[in-house]
Specification:
By secondary structure, the protein is mainly α. It has a domain at 69-96. The protein is 79% helix and 0% strand. Helix 2 (19-38) packs antiparallel against helix 3. It is found in: Lipid droplet. Keywords: Lipid droplet.
Length: 106
């Protein structure tokens, strides 16, 4: 079978668009928001955690930027090959496991 990944699409985008994955993410987001709204102490802990994750992500990106700039030309083709292989694997999984096309509640 021909992979349905396009040049601008990557395997992560495809996985996140699978109904089983997207419905799970939506359910988790609703539960997370509901927990934050109903428990003030939990909300303050979650805010601290969220700020920490954002700060760590920004720091990691800042630290990696020079490395990524130097490696980018060499990595582009390797990333494209890896993405293509992962998309083929996802094609195979979608073909063999039809349940991936249904939301969690089904």
């Amino acid at each position: 079978p021909v992979s349905i990944c396009h040049v601008q699409e990557n395997v992560l985008q495809r996985v996140l668009q699978l109904p089983v994955v997207s419905s799970t993410c939506e359910t988790l987001q609703r539960k997370y928001s509901s927990t934050k709204e109903s428990h003030p102490l939990m909300a303050s802990v979650c805010k601290v955690y969220e700020r920490g994750v954002q700060g760590a992500g920004a720091l990691a990106m800042w630290g990696m930027e020079p490395v990524v700039r130097r490696l980018e030309p060499q990595c582009e083709s390797a990333v494209a090959v890896a993405n293509n292989l992962a998309c083929r694997g996802l094609d195979h999984l979608e073909e063999k496991i039809p349940a991936l096309q249904y939301p969690v509640d089904k």
